[in-house]
Fold this sequence. Notes:
By secondary structure, the protein is mostly beta strands. It contains two helices and ten strands; from the N terminus they run E-H-E-H-E-E-E-E-E-E-E-E. The strands form two sheets. Strands 3-2-1-9-10 form a five-stranded mixed sheet, with helices on one face. A five-stranded mixed sheet has the order 4-5-6-8-7, with no helix packed on it. The mean pLDDT is 95.
Amino acid sequence: xxxxxxxxxxxxxxxxxxxxxxxxxxxxxxxxxxxxxxLMELDAIAPVYAxxxxxxxxxxxxxxxxRALPRLGGKRFLIVHRPTDVGSVPDDVAVVVNAxxxxxxxxxxxxxxxxxxxxxxxxxDGAPSVAIVDWGEDGVPDARIVYLS
Length: 149
């Protein structure tokens, strides 16, 4: 299963996100959603797993919290908004998603994939961006940044 990762939309969903997420089976929104319509538009593409950002409040209902631990594509994800909220990573987590910085980043640390998709609306490192998580033939998740330009 391919997973689309987005964050820091701040109420605006760039139309190019739909094209970037064409083949995803699920979408992770790592906070600073900004408006309910963003989640609704993403949910029309694939099921959405979202967390609250520092600019969000409880307006998205009881399923959107500050931290989420869904199992996607057979792997456990830890999703938070701020990098400082990651804390200790449970042993069964394969992918950690955080945001907040508006800087895209993919790295592997001690067998865990860390992904920050940057910002889909207000980037600090060039073009708006999202990320795609795929599994290699070895079953290990990896990610790539997709710039929306």
